[in-house]
Records
---
Amino acid sequence: FYGYKIRAKSAELNNWLEEVVLVIQSQRNSYHAHQSAQRKAEILQQAAQLGQEAPVVLLLHELSEYEGDWTPFLSYPTLFVLSYCQEWFLGKRLHDNEASIIHHYAFSEDPSSFGYPDPAAGWAISMSLLQRLAERIQYERMKSDFTIDLKHEIAFYIWEGGNGPKLTAVPEFCTQQRDYCATTFTTYLPNCGDAVNKEDIFVAVKTCQKFHSERVPVVKATWDKDAAFLEYYSDVTDPSIPTIHLGVPNTERGHCGKTFAILRRFLSDSVPKADWLLIVDDDTLISLPRLRKLLRCYDPREAVSLGERYGYGLMQSGYSYTTGGGGMVLSRVAVSRLVSSGCSCYSDDAPDDMVLGMCLSSVGVPITHSPLFHQARPDDYSEDLLSMQQPISFHKHWNTDPVAVYTHWLQDTQPRDEL
């Protein structure tokens, strides 16, 4: 993760530093691989300065070639091995303030009663617990084929319906700088230099006739003005917006046919040539200035697929995908590789984000995750978690004022031409 730091400060910890296994949740993209290698070097340097035997430091993306290795259900990221006898699950505790759709409304009667770890602070499990989980995962089928919010699903799996340990909150796992902290965290939005130009991003908004008067005005009232190149794709041509009909009939769900038509159009001479394609729904709220800043960290000459990463069937050699509601960002190279592969929708109403993930996996393009993209509303996430972010996107207008959500969470007070 960006800005993650670990400090071995206490004498007790220093005495058994060689018994620590650190797993950095790295990713295959060149930017993230470089960042994780730097973090590993810093940790080893700290150990040398303490005069201690170096801990084992592993980079998650190097543990296997499988794209699904980002989920600890396949390779558990262990920070500190604190005990060989007792089962410990430690970290900074997050909880829901209200029942959340991304957590399948678990603990709806008292959402705050269940805690899950803040990944920015790091988390730890004891060797005894790790060994039991490793054995359990071999014979027990996961209750869901989907991996959506990993930190909550990890805690829920470890808790095991009350038969396993709950997360123990440990103050030394921190996201803010304090003297007693073993870990600190800087930011999810790194500073890689000046933001990319507006003209580097082509924005595709998926809509349909029944939402022209309900959702499109919200886009125009909030983030539309921050785009240099933007087109609305609908099932009808409406010059008042304007919208473009791609010849694909509207579907109630999935929209795969429409999305693949957008990919082909992006590569054609019908639209301005740009390095990046952003595909969003008409009820997606997004900060384009923040996205432009984030994209400076990535090389558009690489095949990049960026957004909020979900997984399907990862325990059975499945695939990762960028969830569509939070926004799907693709480099021109990735779009070209995908389209030229011949991979396509099995039906127009197939889930476009999942089909894209399956196709990208088949051509060797990894899904790069950023926690700044959100498939759901702000109310569906922990307040503590969002307080550490400069979010890039949220999704859904249900039971919210979308303009107010955009103003509070995504609109920067700094003038747009400076972002």
Note: Confidence is low (pLDDT under 50) at residues 1-6, 8-14, 75-83, 415-419.
---
Amino acid sequence: MEDYNISRGKHFYTIGLSYKKADAEIRGHFSLSDEAKQNLLKQAKDEGIDGLIVTSTCNRTEIYGFAQHPFQLIKLLCEHTHGTVEEFEKVAYVYKNKEAISHMFRVGTGLDSQILGDFEIISQLKIAFVQSREAGVANAFFERLINAVIQASKRIKNETQISSGATSVSFASVQYILNNFEKPAEQNILLFGTGKIGRNTCENLVKHTKNHHITLINRTKDRAEKIAGKFDLSVKDYADLQAEIRQADILIVATGAQHPTITKDLIYNKKELLILDLSIPKNVADDVQELEGVKLIHLDHLSQMTDETLERRRESIPQAKAIIAEIEGEFNQWLETRKFAPTIKALKKKFKAMKDAEIDFQRRKITGFNDQQAEIISDRIIQKIMNHFANHLKGDSNTTDESLELIQKMFQLEEPVRK
């Protein structure tokens, strides 16, 4: 990307890992808390990186950024997570320049989501951009790219059926309950964690199971109370967690902790217990499965569930890809203009200097010289000439570099300064 005059970094990269090759445990090693994200962004700025955004969700962790080499970004990720470079290399992907741009379009429009058409990622990309802008590492390229991806996402959502029906992770958990319990409305359900996934799960539980035997527990009780009030559900203190697990038929865990919050020593059930862990990193210790009557299901399993809704969504993929191709093409056209923007700016400055010198000469030579009319006429002529140059440079990207070199020599322009 060094020819595009948008960053000090030589190339634009996407580095990351996702559900496709990394299981939940490995994804957990590279999960970034909000504090870790802020620290990563700060370090990036300190190291001279002028364009970078980072996302970390239950399904993927990615860094999009400008760098001389992708290892700069990989190093940042590993220094702020529990993952190692060796682990990363086994499951990771690295995209460069136009491929990295295409990847963001696929991710932001839900085509690369674990559940096809899941549009929650676009809001996460928006938040990531805002965080980068506040940290001083979001340049004009990122603003333009994020807006283009948002535009594609909106059009796909409005013009296709790829987001029809409910197939989010939160709904998948409810669907599992509906498929495995004859009387889901009669089960005692305990929901631990009322963040975004917890809230969505709660809403889907009430809507689809018609169950009002749902108890909410959150470390911050007032957050749980706000959600409970909306649906007329019970709320218990965090200190009551063990006692409530004993009463539950189904335990849904959706906390944002970096370590397991549900362990063997919390469970003393005398009846069967289904545990659905919707968290990344895993918030339920694997060894709870050793307990008699306990069944543990993680979100990776839930996300593999396919139904008629997903089949209908797949039929919309070609239409969605066509929309992406159109908007991505427009973005790449804009990107091409960045190649010659400094030359056009320098050329316009050159013409203006020539105009000012000629008007000054004619002013001294001609009695009653009309400065205002001369300015208007000459500015219009310059603009028409500039449009011809710009249209020529836009028209054939294969010869842009040669044309730029010719223009610079012809008008003796200074070599554009790279950022």
Note: The domain at 169-306 is CATH 3.40.50.720 (Rossmann fold).
